[in-house]
Design a protein that fits this description.
Blueprint: H1 27-56, E1 62-66, E2 97-105, H2 108-136, H3 159-182, H4 187-190, E3 193-195, E4 202-208, E5 211-213, H5 220-232, E6 239-245, E7 247-248, E8 254-258, E9 261-266, E10 269-272, H6 293-303, H7 315-323, H8 326-340, H9 344-376, E11 381-386, E12 389-394, E13 403-406, E14 410-411, E15 415-420, E16 422-426, H10 428-431, E17 437-440, E18 459-460, E19 465-469, E20 476-482, H11 488-497, E21 501-503, H12 505-535, H13 541-550, E22 571-574, H14 576-580, E23 586-596, E24 599-603, E25 607-608, H15 617-625, E26 630-632, E27 635-637, H16 640-649, E28 652-655, E29 661-664, E30 670-680, E31 685-691, E32 697-704, H17 705-711, H18 721-730, E33 733-742, H19 749-754, H20 757-760, E34 765-773, H21 780-789, E35 793-797, H22 802-812, E36 820-829, E37 832-842, H23 851-856, H24 863-869, H25 871-875, E38 879-884, H26 885-891, H27 896-900, E39 904-908, H28 912-924, E40 929-933, H29 939-944, E41 947-951, E42 962-964, H30 971-1010, H31 1016-1034, H32 1055-1080, H33 1105-1125, H34 1139-1157, H35 1162-1166, H36 1182-1189, H37 1200-1225, H38 1228-1236
Parallel strand pairs: 5-21, 22-35, 22-40, 35-39, 36-38, 38-39, 40-41, 41-42
Antiparallel strand pairs: 1-2, 2-3, 2-4, 4-6, 7-8, 8-9, 9-10, 11-12, 11-13, 13-20, 14-19, 15-18, 15-20, 16-17, 16-19, 23-24, 23-25, 23-34, 26-27, 28-29, 29-30, 30-31, 31-32, 32-33, 33-34, 36-37
Length: 1246
C-alpha cells in the first residue's frame, strides 16, 4: 500500500459492484420524498385546524399578579441590640410576579404530529449514516495520509451524486435543527390545542423577566441593539415561560406548579394556593385545640404536601437541554461537514472532546441538582393536635394552622409560631451563624406578624434545628405558619433556583461581536470562491461550498460562561460587628451616676467590670437580671454581649417550672425575674420585672442610650448625658443605657403581670451607662488598606451608632485620620415635639489643623448647606459623611440621598432592610458592589450585592454566593483577586479563540489562492493539540498576590481588547506577507500546479512549499497568541508561573522548530515539510506526476537556507506579538492613553 490511497474504485467504474441508487425514481428515494411530503402535510394540516379552532373559539390568557410578601421594617434599631434575641435575618421582598396563563389540551392528531416531528429529527441522523456509509465503504486505512479518505460509493455510485444528496440533506437538517433549538420548549405545544383552563391538560405560563443591566456606560452600538430589541419585543413582552402539567388532587381540585409555587385552577380562574393563618399575633391564638381532621384534609388539598417541590430532572432531559443549544447544533453541522469531507478521524476526535465536555457539564449540573434536592428534603414526624387529641403524622402532611408539640433535637419541617413555651434553636443552616438562638412564645396581642420582621423571635424557621424545647419538663406548642415553598427556607431556595437575570457588559456586546464575525465570514466565503476559481483546481461545486463553509470553523466556537462580576467591584460594603470587628463584644464596665439634691444626676468615674468594683447594688442587680439568657447543657445561651455582661457579675441562674428565672449571687442572695419583655426593634429596649427577697418589685430597662433618654425622668439624666455617651462611642465602646424604677410595695404579683409594656417602660431613673468594647479583627486594617490601594471604596453598614462606627472606621483606616466626619441625624425641633428636622454635625475635631474648620461646623448644618457650601470638600475627600437610618429614610424622600450616596462612608443605626436598600441604590448608580457580613441580619444586603461573601462556619450557606468558613475578612481581598484574575482569563480565552478564527480564515484563504490544503497532521495539531492544550492551560494562571489599582476590562469592544486582537492579527499578517514574498522570490521555488489537482482529493494538496510556509508561519503565530494573552497585566501572576502553559508552548515551539530545520525524515514527512523533494523524478505525489507528464521539470526541496530564514521571520513575528501586548496593550502606551482619556463612570473619593 502506497503513501496515498489508491482505492477503492468507485462503484460505477467497478464491474463487480452494483450501484443501489442510480436515479431519483428509486423506491428508497421516493420513500424519503414521500415521507418529507407526509411530514409537511400533516404538520400544516394540524396548524390549519388549530387556526380554525382559535378563530371559532378564541382563548384569552388568564392574568395573575403575585404580590411580593411584605416584610416589616423596624423604625429604629441597633446592631448590638438586634442580637439580644438571636440573629434576625430579613429577606428583601422581590418585585411582584405577573403571570399570563393559557390552557392547552392534547389531541390524538396533535400527538401523532409531534411524534412524527421527533422521528424526523432522528431520520436526519439516519440519512447521514447512510450517506457516510456510502462515502467510506471499503476505504483504505494506511498511514497518516491514508486514513479512510473515500470509499466506493456503492449506494449513489459517484462522488458527485453523493455530494448532491449530502448538500440537500445538510441544508434541510440545518433548517430543521435550528428551528427546533430556536423554539425549544414550544415545539410540543405547537401540536396542542388552546382551550379554557377548565378543560386544559397543560398550562403555558409566561412571567415577565426581572433583569438588571450592569453596563451603565455602553457603546453606541449597544444602545442601538437595545432599541432594536425593544422595538421587536417591548419591555412588557420580555419574559420567560414554562409549560407545566395541570394536575388533580384526589378530590378533583386542579392545580399546577410554577417555579415551585402551587397555583390553583378553578374553572377559568387561577389563584395562589396559600393559607394565611393570621395577620395579627392574636389570630394565631384563636385555635388552641388545633384543626379537625376534616379541616386538615381540606387544607392539604388546597396547599399540597409540606415539601419543596424540587426533584432532579430526568437524565434524558439533562442531555437534551445540554445538547440542544445553538452552540452544540453549530458544532454538529460543522462536524458533519468534516465527517463527510474525508476528515473522519479528526472529526471523530473533536466529537469525542465535545461529548466529554458535555458529559462533564451534565454531571456537574446533576450533582448540583441532587445536592439541592438533599437540602430540600426533610424526613421527620410531628406530633399534631387533631380533633382535640394528639397524633403522630408524617411532617409532609402538616398544613398551616396545625398545632404541634415541639420536641428537642428536631429538624423543623416548616415555619412555626410558638404559642406556648420557649426553645433554643440552631439557625446556622439559614443564617450561617452557629450561635444558639432563643425563641419565645408569641404574646396574644393585636400586633401585625411578620415572620422575618418583628415575629422572628417567636418563629421557628424551616430547616433549622431545635436544640432544646422548653425547660424543666415544660411543654412547647407551636402553630404551623407556612409550609412548602412559602417557608423561609423555600423563599431562599427559590431565589437560588430562579435568580434575577443580570446582563453584564459582556452579554450585550456579544451579539455585536457575533454580527461582525458573521459579516467577516460572509466576506471570506465570497473571496474563497473567487480564490478557488483563480487557482484552477478541478473541483465539483459542492466541494467548493464545503471548503468555503470550513473557513468559518472556529469563529463561532464561543460558549462564554458568566464571567466573574467580582472582578469589576468598585464599592465594598462591610457590616461592623463580627465582620470588621471580633465576634461579640467584651464587657468593659459601667458608668454610674450619683444623685445630687435639687440638681441633675452627675456621672461618677467609670467602674471596671470586676464585680468587687461595682458598689452600686442597684446597677449590679440590673446587670444580673436585665438580659434574655437561658441555659442549654450548662452553657449560657443568648447574645454574647449579654453573656459577657452576666459573667462579669459572677452570679448564676436557674429556671423554675413556671418559666421564671432566679439569679443567685455567690453569697446566696437571690432575685427572681417574674416578667421579661423581650427586645423590641421598634422600641429599641428590653425590660424585666424583678422580685427581691423581701417580695418587692423592681423594673430594669436596658436599650440604646437615645431611647433610654426618652423614657427616663429628666432630673435623673446628667446634663452631659449625650456627650458622655457619644464620647464613649468615639473611643470604640458600644454603649447601652440602664434605667430603673421601684414599684410600690402595695403592688401585687397579679398587678405586675397585668401591667402593659408602656406602663413598665416609663418614668425611669437613669442609673448607668453599660459599656462594651468591640475590637478590630487582626486582618481588618490590612484588608481596608488593600482595598483602597486596589481603587475600591469601602463603606460601613452597621446597626450600631454613628460614633462607634466612626471609631472603627478610623481604626481600620476606612476613614483617614485627617478627615472630618459629619453625622446626619433626625432631631426634634425645640419646643415643637411633633416636628423633626435633619441636621449635620461634626463627630469631633480631629486635630488642631482642622480646628478652624470644626468651629465653622460647630453649628449644625442643613442638607442644603452641605450640598451648597461643602460639596468640594466632599468630592476632595476632606469631609466624609455618616448617616443614621432615620436620616437615610428621610433623605430618600427627595433626591438628596442620591447626591450624597457616594460621599457617605458610614451608614449607622441601619436595619437589615435599610442595608439592602443601600446596596440596591449603589447598584442603580451603575456600580458593581460587594457585601461582606456575618450571614445574620446582613442577609438582605448579601443577596442584593453583586458579590456577597458571608463569614460563616455553616457547611452549606445559602445566604450569599460566597462563604468564608474561617470567618476571615481577608477573604474579601482573595475574592477580588480571584475575580479580577478570572475576568482577565475569560477575556484572554475569548481573544485566543478570536485569533484562532481569524488566523484560520487567513490560512484557508491563502490555501484557496494557491489551490492547496494543509495535511491532516497540521489540522490535528491545530484543533486537537494547540486549541485544547493551550486553551486549557491558559485558565490555570493564578491571581496576582497583591490587589492592584486597575480593574480588567469588561468590554468585548473596548479599546484594550480590540487593540490586542487587531494589533496581533495585523502583525501576523505583515510577517506572513514577508514569508510569502520571500518564498515567491526564491530561485528554487516552483509554484504549485493546482490545475493538475482535484480538490476532493485534498490529501494530495500539501506536497508543496506553500503548505509548509503557510502552516509553520501561522502555527507559530497562533500558539504564541496563547502565550501573549496569558501575560499577567497586574491581575494574574507572571506567565512563567503557569508551568503547563509554558511547558506546552515551549514543547510545541521546539518540536516545530526541529521539524522545520531538520533534513527530511520519516518524522517530517508526517507534516509534509518541504524539506522533502516532492517534485522529484519518480515522485509518488499524484499532482507532481501529472505536472511532469505535462512537460514540467523536477524542482529541488526547500533548502536549509530558506527554512532558516523562514524560522527567523517566524521568531521576529513572535517577538513582535510579545512587544505589542507588553508595551502597547498592557504597557505604558495604553496607560498613557487611558490617563488622558479616562472612561466615563461615577467618581468618588476612596
Amino acid at each position: 500500500m502506497g503513501r496515498y490511497p489508491s482505492g477503492p474504485k468507485s462503484c460505477v467504474s467497478d464491474p463487480s459492484c452494483d450501484v443501489l441508487i442510480t436515479k431519483v425514481t428509486h423506491p428508497a428515494v421516493v420513500t424519503v420524498f414521500c415521507y418529507w411530503g407526509f411530514v409537511l402535510l400533516v404538520c400544516c394540516s394540524f396548524q390549519i385546524l388549530k387556526l380554525w379552532l382559535i378563530r371559532k373559539n378564541p382563548v384569552k390568557p388568564v392574568f395573575l399578579r403575585e404580590e411580593a410578601p411584605k416584610s416589616s421594617r423596624p423604625a429604629t434599631g441597633s446592631e448590638g441590640a438586634s442580637r439580644f434575641q438571636g440573629q434576625e435575618f430579613l429577606l428583601e421582598p422581590e418585585e411582584a410576579k405577573e403571570l399570563l396563563v393559557t390552557g392547552y389540551t392534547w389531541s390524538y392528531f396533535g400527538e401523532f404530529c409531534y411524534c412524527v416531528c421527533c422521528l424526523t429529527s432522528l431520520h436526519w441522523l439516519a440519512l447521514y449514516v447512510v450517506i457516510l456509509f456510502d462515502t467510506y465503504n471499503k476505504c483504505d486505512i494506511g498511514g497518516i495520509d491514508n486514513l479512510c479518505f473515500f470509499g466506493n460509493y456503492f449506494i449513489f455510485g459517484t462522488y458527485e451524486l453523493n455530494a448532491k444528496v449530502f448538500f440537500t440533506v445538510w441544508w434541510l437538517s440545518v433548517v430543521w435543527y435550528t428551528t427546533w433549538v430556536l423554539f425549544k420548549g414550544r415545539v410540543h405545544n405547537w401540536f396542542r390545542l388552546p382551550c379554557p383552563l377548565s378543560q386544559a391538560t397543560v398550562a403555558f405560563v409566561w412571567a415577565r423577566d426581572r433583569e438588571e443591566i450592569l453596563s451603565a456606560n455602553a457603546f453606541a452600538l449597544v444602545y442601538i441593539i437595545r432599541r432594536f430589541k425593544n422595538i421587536i419585543m417591548p419591555p412588557d413582552a420580555q419574559g420567560h415561560f414554562e409549560i407545566v402539567d395541570i394536575l388533580e388532587t384526589a378530590s378533583g381540585k386542579r392545580y399546577f406548579l410554577f417555579e415551585g409555587l402551587r397555583v390553583l385552577v378553578d374553572g377559568s380562574q387561577i389563584s395562589h394556593a396559600r393559607i394565611q393563618v393570621g395577620a395579627l399575633l392574636s389570630d394565631f391564638h384563636q385555635s388552641p385545640t388545633g384543626l379537625s381532621a376534616e379541616d386538615s384534609s381540606n387544607r392539604l388539598e388546597h396547599v399540597g404536601l409540606n415539601k419543596i417541590p424540587f426533584e432532579p430532572e430526568p437524565l434524558f432531559q439533562s442531555i437534551c437541554d445540554e445538547l440542544f443549544t445553538f452552540f452544540h447544533v453549530y458544532q454538529l453541522i460543522m462536524y458533519i461537514l468534516q465527517y463527510w469531507n474525508s476528515y473522519l478521524f479528526v472529526a471523530a476526535l473533536m466529537t469525542c472532546i465535545v461529548l466529554l465536555s458535555s458529559s462533564i457539564t451534565i454531571y456537574t449540573r446533576r450533582r448540583s441538582q441532587y445536592t439541592i434536592a438533599e437540602i430540600t428534603k426533610i424526613k421527620t414526624d410531628a406530633e399534631v393536635l387533631r380533633g382535640g387529641s394528639w397524633t403522630t403524622v408524617d411532617a409532609s402532611l402538616l398544613v398551616p394552622g396545625d398545632m404541634v408539640r415541639v420536641k428537642s433535637n428536631w429538624l423543623l419541617p416548616c415555619d412555626f409560631l410558638i404559642l406556648q413555651g420557649s426553645c433554643i434553636t440552631d439557625e446556622s443552616a439559614l443564617t450561617g451563624e452557629a450561635m444558639p438562638v432563643q425563641k419565645y412564645a408569641a404574646p396574644n396581642v393585636s400586633l401585625s406578624y411578620q415572620s422575618q420582621g418583628n415575629g422572628a423571635r417567636h418563629t421557628l424557621f424551616s430547616g433549622t434545628t431545635v436544640l432544646q424545647a422548653g425547660s424543666s419538663g415544660e411543654e412547647v406548642r407551636a402553630i404551623v405558619a407556612e409550609t412548602g415553598m412559602n417557608t423561609s427556607k423555600g423563599q431562599i431556595l427559590s431565589s437560588i433556583l430562579y435568580p434575577q437575570k443580570m446582563i453584564f457588559k459582556y452579554d450585550e456586546e456579544l451579539p455585536i461581536v457575533a454580527f461582525f464575525l458573521v459579516l467577516y465570514g460572509i466576506v471570506c466565503f465570497a473571496i474563497s470562491i473567487v480564490f478557488q476559481n483563480h487557482a484552477g483546481a478541478q473541483s465539483y461545486w459542492v466541494t467548493k461550498w464545503i471548503y468555503c463553509m470550513a473557513i468559518s470553523r472556529g469563529i463561532f466556537c464561543l460558549n462564554p460562561k458568566r464571567i466573574a462580576i467580582a472582578g469589576k467591584i468598585r464599592v465594598f460594603c462591610f457590616d461592623k460587628t463580627g465582620t470588621l470587628t471580633k465576634e461579640g463584644l467584651d464587657f468593659v464596665g459601667v458608668h454610674c451616676v450619683s444623685k445630687v439634691e435639687n440638681e441633675n444626676s452627675v456621672f461618677e468615674p467609670v467602674v471596671l467590670h470586676e464585680k468587687r468594683d461595682i458598689e452600686n447594688t442597684t446597677v449590679l442587680h440590673g446587670l444580673a437580671t436585665c438580659h434574655a439568657l437561658s441555659k442549654f447543657e450548662g452553657i449560657f445561651v443568648g447574645n454574647q454581649v449579654e453573656v459577657n455582661m452576666f459573667k462579669s457579675v459572677g452570679w448564676d441562674f436557674y429556671e423554675l417550672d413556671d418559666r421564671s428565672v432566679v439569679v443567685r449571687s455567690d453569697d446566696g442572695k437571690e432575685l427572681k425575674v417574674v416578667r421579661r419583655n423581650e427586645f423590641d426593634h421598634a422600641r429599641a429596649t428590653m425590660s424585666v420585672i424583678v422580685q427581691d427577697e423581701r417580695d418587692e418589685f423592681h423594673i430594669y430597662c436596658k436599650g440604646s442610650f437615645e431611647r433610654i433618654q426618652e423614657l427616663s425622668k429628666a432630673g435623673t439624666l446628667p446634663l452631659d448625658y449625650i456627650s458622655t455617651a457619644q464620647a464613649h462611642a468615639l473611643e470604640g465602646c458600644y454603649v447601652l443605657s440602664l434605667g430603673y424604677r421601684k414599684l410600690s410595695p402595695s403592688v401585687s404579683p397579679k398587678d405586675v403581670l397585668a401591667l402593659s409594656r408602656e406602663e413598665v417602660e416609663k418614668e425611669l431613673d437613669f442609673i448607668a451607662l453599660v459599656l462594651f468594647r468591640n475590637e478590630l479583627k487582626p486582618g481588618s486594617k490590612e484588608t481596608i488598606r488593600a482595598l483602597k490601594e486596589g481603587e475600591i471604596r469601602p463603606i460601613m453598614l452597621t446597626g450600631d451608632n454613628a460614633q462607634c462606627g466612626h471609631y472603627i472606621a478610623k481604626q481600620s483606616g476606612m476613614v483617614s485620620s485627617h478627615v472630618q466626619v459629619l453625622v446626619g441625624d433626625v432631631v426634634k425641633e425645640r419646643c415643637i415635639t411633633s416636628t423633626f428636622r435633619l441636621v449635620w454635625s461634626p463627630v469631633k475635631a480631629e486635630s488642631s489643623t482642622h480646628r478652624s474648620f470644626s468651629e465653622v461646623l460647630a453649628r449644625p448644618l442643613s442638607t442644603e448647606e452641605i450640598l451648597a457650601q461643602h460639596i468640594k470638600g466632599l468630592e476632595g475627600g476632606i469631609i466624609e459623611l455618616a448617616v443614621t437610618g432615620k436620616a437615610f429614610n428621610l433623605l430618600r424622600t427627595s433626591e438628596a440621598m442620591d447626591r450624597l450616596l457616594l460621599h457617605t462612608r458610614i451608614f449607622a443605626r441601619f436595619t437589615p432592610s435599610d442595608k439592602a436598600r443601600v446596596a440596591t441604590m449603589l447598584r442603580d448608580r451603575g456600580l458593581i458592589i460587594g457585601m461582606c457580613g456575618d450571614g445574620g441580619n446582613d442577609c438582605g444586603a448579601l443577596r442584593a450585592a453583586h458579590a456577597g461573601i458571608a463569614l460563616s462556619e455553616a457547611e452549606a450557606s445559602v445566604v450569599s454566593p460566597f462563604t468564608s468558613k474561617d470567618k476571615s475578612i481577608e477573604s474579601v481581598v482573595d475574592l477580588l483577586r480571584e475575580g479580577r484574575a478570572a475576568l482577565h482569563t475569560s477575556f484572554a480565552c475569548y481573544k485566543f479563540l478570536i485569533i484562532y478564527g481569524l488566523m484560520f480564515s487567513i490560512l484557508k484563504l491563502c490555501a484557496y489562492w494557491y489551490g492547496i490544503i494543509p495535511c491532516q497532521m497540521d489540522y490535528f495539531f491545530i484543533d486537537g493539540v494547540a486549541v485544547l492544550t493551550l486553551g486549557y492551560a491558559m485558565t490555570l494562571s493564578y491571581p496576582e498576590a497583591k490587589l492592584g489599582k486597575d480593574r480588567p476590562t469588561s468590554s468585548l469592544l473596548g479599546a484594550e481588547n480590540v487593540a490586542s486582537v487587531l494589533g496581533i492579527w495585523i502583525i501576523n499578517l505583515c510577517f506572513l506577507i514577508a514569508a510569502v514574498v520571500m518564498m515567491a522570490n526564491d530561485p528554487n521555488y516552483v509554484k504549485w500546479p493546482a490545475s493538475f489537482s482535484h480538490e476532493a482529493s485534498w490529501w494530495t494538496l500539501s506536497d508543496n512549499w506553500e503548505s509548509t510556509v503557510l502552516f509553520f508561519t501561522m502555527y507559530f503565530q497562533f500558539i504564541t497568541s496563547a502565550f501573549v494573552f496569558t501575560f499577567g497585566s497586574g491581575f494574574r501572576k507572571n506567565v512563567f508561573n503557569n508551568h503547563l502553559l509554558i511547558g506546552s508552548y515551549a514543547g510545541l515551539v521546539i518540536l516545530f522548530s526541529f521539524l522545520l530545520l531538520l533534513p527530511h525524515s520519516s518524522l517530517t514527512s508526517l507534516w509534509h515539510v518541504a524539506s522533502e523533494q516532492f517534485n522529484r523524478l519518480g515522485t509518488d505525489s499524484p499532482v507532481w506526476i501529472l505536472y511532469q507528464k505535462a512537460g514540467g521539470n523536477p524542482s529541488p526541496a526547500m533548502p536549509l537556507r530558506f527554512r532558516r530564514n523562514l524560522w527567523l521571520i517566524i521568531i521576529a513575528s513572535m517577538i513582535g506579538n510579545c512587544l505589542w501586548q507588553k508595551l502597547c496593550v498592557d504597557g505604558f502606551i495604553a496607560k498613557t492613553i487611558a490617563k488622558n482619556h479616562p472612561s466615563k463612570r461615577p467618581t468618588f473619593h476612596l
